[in-house]
Amino acid sequence: MTTEILPYSKLTSTQVYDFLQLRSEVFVVEQDCVYQDIDGYDDKAFHVLFYDDTILVAYSRILPPGTYFEELSIGRVIVKATHRKLNLGHDLMDRSIVFSHANYKKAIIKISAQRYLIKFYELHGFQIHGEGYLEDGIPHIGMKLMKI
User: Fold this and answer.
1) What is the pLDDT of residue 148?
2) What pLDDT was estimated at residue 136?
3) Cα distances (Å, whole numbers) of residue 145 to 4, 93, 123, 125, 128
4) Which of 29, 89, 113, 137 is deepest in the core (most CB within 10 A)?
5) Phi, psi of 78 (to 5 degrees)
6) How far apart are the first and last CA of the chain?
7) In DSSP terms, which residues pair with 113 in a beta bridge?
8) What is the side-by-side strand order in the sheet with 46-52?
9) How distant is the alpha carbon of residue 64 from its chain centre?
10) What is the mean pLDDT of residues 107-116?
11) What is the predicted pLDDT for the residue at 32?
12) At 105, is the pLDDT very low, low, confident or very high (cuts 50, 70, 90)?
């Protein structure tokens, strides 16, 4: 397994294709959610890429403070269905959080979590912040992680 965290400007066209394909596979097809995935933020983000040989199997996107939320944000957190029993989701969040805190010293991290994943994010120190809401027809909740 190889891991890279890169700004958009350092990604190859293959890496961009890989993360767009994985996001579509999971969020659009698997979750049956029609939404505007290409939202104009990818070029402002750091991209966390986990490859098993040449296959992208886990991914997240880190948006600097003031880009999407006032706070730093980690989003588009996904693990390919074939690799979900390997705890890659936890590794992915750990890497995303460590990178965020190393590069944005005082950053609070805010996420828009699918409600069924509250316990998963709580294991990483996130706490519910605000009321639940629907995003693209899926129940979500705001959560925040203060710098540890």
Assistant:
1) 59
2) 83
3) 23, 12, 11, 6, 9
4) 113
5) -145, 150
6) 27
7) 141
8) 2-7, 46-52, 55-63, 72-79, 109-114, 138-145, 127-135
9) 13
10) 94
11) 79
12) confident
Beta carbons of 118 and 141 less than 8 angstroms apart: yes
Q: Is the confidence at residue 72, as pLDDT, over 80?
A: yes
| Tokens 């995303």 belong to residue | 96
Q: What is the DSSP string of the chain?
A: -EEEEEEGGG--HHHHHHHHHHHIIIIIIITT-------S-GGGSEEEEEEETTEEEEEEEEE-TTTSSSSEEEEEEEE-GGGGGGTHHHHHHHHHHHHHHHHSTT--EEEEEEGGGHHHHHTTT-EEEEEEEEETTEEEEEEEE---
DSSP strand pairing (109-114 vs 72-79):
parallel
- 20 has a pLDDT exceeding 80: yes
pLDDT digits (tens, 9 = 90+) for 26-55: 988 888 777 778 899 999 999 999 999 999
CB 37 within 8 A of CB 24: yes
| Residue linked to tokens 């996420």 | 111
CA pair distance 81, 104, nearest whole angstrom: 31
CA distances from 136 to 6, 67, 94 (A): 28, 20, 26
